[in-house]
Please model this.
Amino acid sequence: MTGVVNTAQAEAWNGYEGEHWASHADRYDGVNSGFNTFVLDLVTPSDRVLDIGCGNGQLTRAAAARATSATGVDLSGPMLATARSRAAEVPNVVFEQGDVQVHPFPEGAFDLAVSRFGVMFFADPVAAFANVHRALRPGGRLAFLCMTALADTDLGRVFGAMAPYLPQPTGPDGSGPTSFADPSRTRAVLTEAGFDGVECTHVEADQIWGRNVPDAAAFIADWGPVRHHLGQVDPETASRATEALTQALKPFEGPDAVKLRGTAWLVTGRRS
Model:
């Protein structure tokens, strides 16, 4: 991997977090793949696509099927191993390990930069998006999905049920996974990075969290941030938190799956 400046995220995504996402690739795709179409509808056959924070590579592969080529970049060695394995028969896909803030992308090499929830963790988001801007040809486009604020969402209600026992696993709204929850901040960051015509469109999709409530609760409890906080409290408090999580998921259980209605911002812009 080239130089890394986002060392805390590199440690997480090459440790338990990345290993959990890699070993549960289908589960995480079940959570997030409903949002794919919002990005893929913007891909054209002539595009050379850059997928930022590509993870296990589902969006990269899907973009490649519509485009001339697709390159996925991520910090996580475990997830990139999964991505490469799953794309072994896809001739126009390449995966690279690197920190987007400093990765040496060839200048002007891409027509479209995309991401599905992979851009919220930059230590210096202006530097990261300025580097993506440089990697795009003049007139190149940007389209990414990021989390909204959790307040008044299904996921916010589920996480909120654990609040009497554990800190918010995603951190306060506006930080961590919700660092681009405020469209005004997003526009300011991208404008400073050189992008024009920045727009933030609210989108929604179903997210499948498990086959049933026990399955979904176990999966969420094993997710890195929740697992970390459960490990910081005594066993009785941890038990109460997981029971509260289980109860909060019950209204979302259907005949075949636990589905929450997910919300996101589809953010688009252009290199002038």
Remarks:
- Residues 7-271 form a domain with the Rossmann fold fold (CATH 3.40.50.150).
- DSSP finds twelve helices and seven strands in the chain.
- The chain has a mean pLDDT of 96.
- The beta strands are 48-52, 69-74, 93-97, 110-116, 136-147, 195-210, 258-271.
